[in-house]
Amino acid sequence: MSTLRPARPGAQQPRAKDVRSADRRGQDGRTQEVRPDPSWGLERRGPAPARLDDVDQRLLAALADDARLPNNALAARAGIAPSTCLTRVRQLRERGVIRGFHADVDPARTGHPLQAMIAVQMRGAARTRLSGYLQRLAELPGVLNVFLLGGAHDFFVHVAAADSDALNEFVIEHLSTDPDVALTETNLIFQHARASWY
C-alpha cells in the first residue's frame, strides 16, 4: 500500500519503536540492550574515523564546495604549498576519506523536476537481505540516494521523476508489487538546500 502526501517543513512523523535497537527490561528490572541479530543482513561498520588535522579539514571543505578547483587555488585556500596540496589530497584518497569526485546534476534540468523521499518498510523475512536490497534500490532508474535506517522504516529512497504519474509508476512497479515490501510512504520534496558541511 502506498500513500502520497507532501512533507511539511518542520513536521515530525510519529515513529514506531525500533525492535532492532530497542531496550528491554530483564527479570531484575534493569534495562538490557537488544543487540541486532546477524540474520538481519546488516554489514559491520566501516573502519575507524581517520585522524584529520586543520589542513585536511580545509582541503575537504574546499573540495566539497568545488571539486574542480585547480591545485594552486586549492593550495591557496588551505594555506599550503601546491606540492604539499597534491600530496595531501592523494593521501586523503588513499585513506578512503575522499571517496571520489562527482558532478552535482540538477534533476530538473534533465527532465526530472519532481523529487520525493519514499519510506520503505520490508516484511520480516526480507530483513535477512537488507544490504542486498539496498544495492538493488540504488540501481533503479531515477534513484538519487538510498538510506538504510534504524527505525520504523527500513529505507528512505530519494528519487527524481518527470511528473506525478512517473513517480506513481515507479512506486508501483519497483516497490508496491515487490513481495518483500510491506509498506511504502511517499513524501514530496518541495525545496532542497545543499549543505555546506562535507
Description:
- With 198 residues, this protein is α+β, with helices and mostly antiparallel strands.
- It is built from 5 helices and 7 strands.
- It has helices spanning 54-65, 71-78, 82-94, 130-138, 164-176, and strands at residues 2-6, 23-25, 31-33, 114-122, 143-148, 155-161, 181-189.
- It has a 5-stranded mixed β-sheet with strand order 1-7-4-6-5, with helices on one face. A two-stranded antiparallel ribbon has the order 2-3.
- Helix 1 (54-65) crosses helix 2 and helix 2 crosses helix 3.
- The two termini are 36 Å apart.
- The model is unreliable at 8-26 and 31-36 (pLDDT under 50).
Structural class: alpha+beta
Range of helix content: 25-40%
H/E element string?
EEEHHHEHEEHE
Q: Return the average pLDDT rounded to an integer.
A: 84
- Radius of gyration, in angstroms, nearest whole number: 21 Å
The largest sheet, given as strand count, sense and whether it forms a barrel, is: 5 strands, mixed
How many beta-strand elements? 7
Which helices and strands, and how do they pair?
Elements lengths: L1 E5 L16 E3 L5 E3 L20 H12 L5 H8 L3 H13 L19 E9 L7 H9 L4 E6 L6 E7 L2 H13 L4 E9 L9
Helix pairs in contact: 1-2, 2-3
Keywords:
198 residues, alpha+beta, five-stranded mixed β-sheet, two-stranded antiparallel ribbon, elongated
Brief digest:
The chain has 198 residues and is α+β, with helices and mostly antiparallel strands.
